[in-house]
Amino acid sequence: MKLAQVLFSQGFGARRECEGLIVSGHVALGGEVVDDPFIDVEPEGLIFSVRGEAWTYHEKALLVMNKPRGHECSQKPKHHPSVYSLLPAPLRRRDVQSVGRLDEDTTGLLLFTDDGALIHRLTSPKRHVPKVYEVGCKHPVSAEQVERLLAGVKLVDDPATVRAANAEATGERPDGLHGLRLTLTDGKYHQVKRMLAAVSNRVEALHRSAFGAFVLPANLAPGQWRWLSPDDARAVADQKLC
Q1: Fewest Cβ atoms closer than 10 Å to its Cβ: which of 55, 125, 148, 212?
Q2: Domain that residue 26 falls in
Q3: 133 and 192 in contact (C-beta within 8 Å)?
Q4: Distance CA 225, CA 80 (A)
Q5: Average pLDDT over residues 30-59
Q6: Does one domain contain both 49 and 66?
């Protein structure tokens, strides 16, 4: 693949812009500046730098963010900053999309990819991919509430019964809220909040800790993102999640 084509595929601008970056001496391979945009390179595993910042070639983008509170999962946010503003420009130009959405006050694991087929597989209701949420509840979580969540509850304005795949009270949290670990395989609007309301409790804090078998890395701070490792990316792409 031509070097300019590599840059174009990775979101560094239009074809002419990428050629200009290379000709102007802003691109390096192996620490050596390359000024020929049409040299052939092997893209698989290629590490290059643009204006001193190192990048690794990825045919398809797949990354995880620890979503911070106060950000909307929208390209055109209405009331709060967008999670996309936390990503570098090349990824935004690649048109990566979040795999599902989290409310602005919900934190935690959020996947992004530019692979439309993968987004469909991960979000299709037929797949039943489990998502794990750490819930901070206003009131103590009783055994009866856990049983009702597992048996199924009806949401306001929705005749269908929704059930938790797993529910476990985790006791009082350091922030004084009452903990609940909830696993869902559905993806209804405000589902966790509505399910807790249906059992006479209230969500005060909500954090997604796992998507299928992939767990949010403990060392990924709020607002940070990283590429998935090859093993994690293969597991996600192969649907080895349930």
Answers
A1: 125
A2: 3-56
A3: yes
A4: 19
A5: 95
A6: no
Strand runs labelled E in the chain: 27-29, 32-33, 47-50, 53-56, 62-67, 97-98, 106-113, 131-137, 153-155, 158-162, 166-172, 178-184, 203-211, 214-215, 225-227
Does any domain span residue 242? Answer: no
CA-based diameter of the chain, in Å? 69
Angle at which helix 116-123 crosses helix 230-237, to 10 degrees, equals 70
Q: Where would I find the H helices in 10-115?
A: 15-23, 89-93
Q: What's the pLDDT at 238?
A: 64
β-partners of residue 162 are: 153
User: pLDDT band for position 239 (50/70/90)?
Assistant: low
Active site residues: 103
pTM of the entire predicted model: 0.90
Look at residue 67 and tell me if it is in a domain: yes
User: How many domains does the structure of the chain reveal?
Assistant: 3
Same domain, yes or no, for 170 and 230? no
* Between residues 33 and 128, the one the model is more confident about: 33
Q: For 215-236, what is each residue's pLDDT tens digit?
A: 999 999 999 999 998 888 777 7
Query: Distance between CA atoms of 210 and 181, rounded to whole angstroms?
Result: 11
CATH of residue 45: 3.10.290.10
Nearest one of 34, 7, 222, 35 to 93, comparing CA atoms: 7
- Cα of first residue to Cα of last residue in the chain, in angstroms, is 37
Distance CA 167, CA 52 (A): 48
- Dump pLDDT digits (tens) for 184-212: 998 888 899 999 999 999 999 999 999 98
